[in-house]
Amino acid sequence: MAQTLELGLDTFGDVTRGADGRELPHAQVIRNVIAEGVLADQVGLDFFGVGEHHRADFAISAPDVVLAAIAARTQRIRLGSAVTVLSSDDPVRVFQRFATLDAASNGRAEVMLGRGSFTESFPLFGYALDQYDKLFAEKLDLFVKLTREEAVTWRGDTRSALNGQRVFPQTESGTLKTWIGVGGSPESVVRTARYGLPMMLAIIGGDPKRFQPYAELYRASLGEFGQPELPIGVHSPGYVASSDEQAREEFWPDYKRMRDQIGAERGWPPMQRAEYDHEIARGSLYVGAPETVARKIAATVKAIGATRFDLKYSAGMLPHEKLMSCIGLYGGKVAPMVRELVG
């Protein structure tokens, strides 16, 4: 059965600079993200996702609270995390928070679960990094049981057991839409299919077509596990402006600064302009005028067979005013073009 293409936006609540060039306080950044989510609804986008981080350069550590504020000022757009770091959280509390968001938003909540590419939450909440994989595997197993909204019996090593216990509140629909964020591990792809959950591919560099085998593996695994056809989404960074040149020049300084800061922590060399231009031309940066970005998104959607594309539109200190302009162009011009191109 054909699935309707959804177009969304993701942000990590990057700390931005104000008109005077100075970093804005976290509180103002959060208020700005709420305004960005409201605009995304007004321009007709399908989804707005907020990431979870625990470091100075990102303002949002409690996505569900920010999303609840957006829910109160919107009518239609679906709202979710991008991602919730399940490994360093409690599955019961995650379910309760997003079930509450689902009630407040009249059934518009989603949760996207991941292990997290940043690890600051592990020491913050007292979890050992040498249990990185085990924590996620066990907590995901429990979370999937919770989504059935029945009495849960579960036992593991990373959390206290549950013995026939119910968790509240329950959702009105009887299900909380739950995605798994996947960065490119075949094991993660197969596990997502085994649990019968939609998969969001985080494609943040290189030719997006290299993720075709993961999409094929996912579909084949769904069949092997007797699961129905499920959505595949793509999350990638980008920026839209009036012209290709304007978009590239406005995005470059802040994107490079953010990329180099994170890269220094992970042993990556500084980003050169040639690499940036190559990622725009042939990789996973969706930067340009509306038509340029739309054509590139459509090509990726067709290659992967995706039913949702989320543009990660924030990048380091890129100002709020430019982000609002990007959102307006993405919803008002890019999204209709993509839907027409994909058919």
Shape label: globular
Main β sheet profile: 8 strands, parallel, barrel
Mean pLDDT rating: 97
Task: Provide the gyration radius in Å.
Answer: 19 Å
Helix fraction? Answer: 40-55%
What structural class do the secondary elements suggest? alpha/beta
Biggest sheet strand order reads 1-2-3-5-8-9-10-12
- Beta strands, count: 12
Strand content: 15-25%
Helical element count?
11
| N→C terminal distance | 15 Å
Describe the structure.
The protein has 343 residues and is an alpha/beta fold. Helix 1 (26-42) packs across helix 2 (63-71), helix 1 runs parallel beside helix 11 and helix 2 (63-71) packs parallel to helix 3. The chain contains 11 helices and 12 strands. The protein has helices at residues 26-42, 63-71, 91-104, 121-125, 132-146, 186-194, 212-224, 244-266, 273-282, 290-304, 320-342, and strands at residues 6-11, 47-50, 78-81, 84-85, 109-114, 152-154, 162-165, 177-182, 199-202, 232-240, 286-288, 308-312. The two termini are 15 Å apart. The strands form 2 sheets. An 8-stranded parallel β-barrel has the order 1-2-3-5-8-9-10-12, surrounded by 7 helices. A two-stranded antiparallel ribbon has the order 6-7. Strand 1 (6-11), helix 1 (26-42) and strand 2 form a beta-alpha-beta unit. It is 45% helix and 16% strand. The mean pLDDT is 97.
